[in-house]
Amino acid sequence: PAMDYAGLAEAAAAKMELYRRDANGWRSCRRTSEVAVSWKPSAEFAGNVYRAEGTVPAHPLHVWECIKPVAGGLRTKWDQSVKDFEVVEAVSDTVSVCRTTTPSALMKVISPREFVDVVLIRQFEDGTMLSAATNVEHPLCPPQPNFVRGYNYPCGCFCIPLPGEPDRTQLLSFFQTDIGGYLPQTVVDSFIPASIAGFYSNLTKAVKALKA
């Protein structure tokens, strides 16, 4: 049976709304000048869900331009954790199935990964943009021999305008990734928050370059 990509995307977006409103039980695990990262056990798989909140010094549209999940987008240029991003199938104007590959990390302790997700993009009346995703399978994306297949459980980013501050954007992100393979949990638990902090730091540099 074919996967209901639109339905899965909608469910991921609904989960993002729930996480956004859920203030309970988050435990802080990393803080930099750009982002505060907290976590709690995931209800979706045997790992953690991470919440990252930071303010990016740029207009929401500039931030969105850097992070939006589109073919040929800017993300592969600035995000060190994304090597390649391709749209496998455009399901609708707002929903697509995408394949992302990541380079090796932690001095090659973590080998290259691939992720296949359905991604939904939504704009709210207040100007907030949401990108939500979750893992799916797709006939055009069988597992590749040189990659370990990882799985993103419902995850996403809210790009939130700050009233009266046009050149600042609140970026609220949720990460919930099973990076696959046989890595000790301690490696995963230190790698993901560090990788999230890197994402915010590199994004901040990217929007500055975009504005320049």
From TrEMBL:
SUPFAM superfamilies: Bet v1-like (SSF55961). This is STAR5 protein. InterPro entries: StARD5/6, START-like_dom_sf, START_lipid-bd_dom. The keyword Transport applies. May be involved in the intracellular transport of sterols or other lipids. May bind cholesterol or other sterols. Residues 1-212 form the START domain. One of its GO terms (biological process) is cholesterol import. Keywords: Lipid transport, Lipid-binding, Transport. GO terms for molecular function: cholesterol binding; cholesterol transfer activity. It comes from Odontophorus gujanensis. SMART domains: START. The keyword Heme does not apply.
